[in-house]
Amino acid sequence: MAERSVPEREPGTGRTGDSGVRMRVLMEPRHGSRYDEILALALATEAAGFDAFFRSDHLMGVDPHDTTYRPTDCWTTLGGLARETSRVRLGALVGAATFREAGLLATIVASVDEMSGGRVELGLGTGWYEREHAAFGIPFPPIRDRFDRLEEQLAVVTGLWRAARDGTSFSHDGSHHRIADNHTPPHPAQDPYPPVIIGGTGPRRTPAIAARFADEFNGALGGDLAERYAVFDRACEAIGRDPATARRSAVLPVACGADPAEVARRGAVIGSDFMRDNAAIGSPEHVTDRIGRLAQAGADTVYLHIYDIGDLDHIALIGAEVLPHVAARPEGALQ
Predict the structure, then answer these.
(1) Confidence (pLDDT) at 275
(2) Are 283 and 257 in contact (CB under 8 A)?
(3) Quick check: is 182 in a domain?
(4) ∠ CA 39-40-41 to the nearest 5 degrees?
């Protein structure tokens, strides 16, 4: 039986008594953003009662020729939000393993976790946007190498965090990352360390890596979500892990409106045909129904994909008209 590296946790990252779905906001604006815009959206997310505020980890939009796109660094902005929010959990869905060296990433995330009082989660993937890497001078290896790098990076990051918890040193001699006898590993605020989120549509390596390291498996967007969760369950069982020790999440692009004109305006902002085909575009009742169908497929956490960063009324509407019908009470929220 292979040893799994994920820390021992209770099912659902230790929470008990939840009813409903954890509802989170995922920000990926069409034309990038400035920090003050990100902060305003995060504060609106917190005020509306969502469980968490996540952002994408990109330096370029889907149109590489969009000269209006404003890139911001994911973890720099999350560090700012850690000090300017009080309750929502914070993270990336998902970070690119190609962007940051493993030891540095472990230190960055641990620092933001401390700054937030233990509200950070680490989402990590292989990275996929080759043009973005070229535009910013970041190497983009072949897909097999990116998966190898991701798996090794997770081993290093979680290994450093465990060493900090246990008061030991850490070394790693791998093909992509080498750590030489680190006696000063970074200390996250959370015990044993921040939850790790891994996901995607791949049928083999993604679920296998998630089974080893993930506290949450994200089934991504489109296709047969229930089957992806079943594949993940089988990957857990193959290494002797109880699948119930991981959460299961999904992404849902959303354009919610109180009337048809509002729905049309918000729907027009969604970036691509693929996103629109898989989005919840309609009334609060329609969005509530779509979230319910994701829950029936096995999702206990849903990330609402938001594209218009300046439309704070959108967040308020969903908070008032959708959350009461679908959401579990966020950690730290008032009774």
Answers:
(1) 87
(2) yes
(3) no
(4) 90
pTM of this prediction?
0.91
Domain that holds residue 311: 20-87+248-335
**pLDDT tens column, 13-45:** 333 234 489 999 999 877 888 999 999 999 999
User: Is 149 part of any domain?
Assistant: no
Strands 89-92 and 52-55: parallel
Condensed to tens digits (0 to 9), the pLDDT of residues 49-81 reads 999 999 999 888 878 888 888 899 999 999 999
Domains identified in the chain, total number:
1
Q: What is the pLDDT of residue 4?
A: 42
- At 229 the three-state DSSP class reads helix
**If we measure between CA atoms, which residue out of 96, 177, 94 comes closest to residue 130?**
96
In a domain, 296, yes or no: yes
Coil vs helix vs strand at 42: helix
Q: What angle do CA 292, 295, 301 make, to 5 degrees?
A: 115
Does residue 321 lie in a domain region?
yes
CA-closest candidate to residue 190, choices 90, 102, 104: 90
Under DSSP, is residue 13 helix (H, G, I), strand (E, B) or coil?
Answer: coil
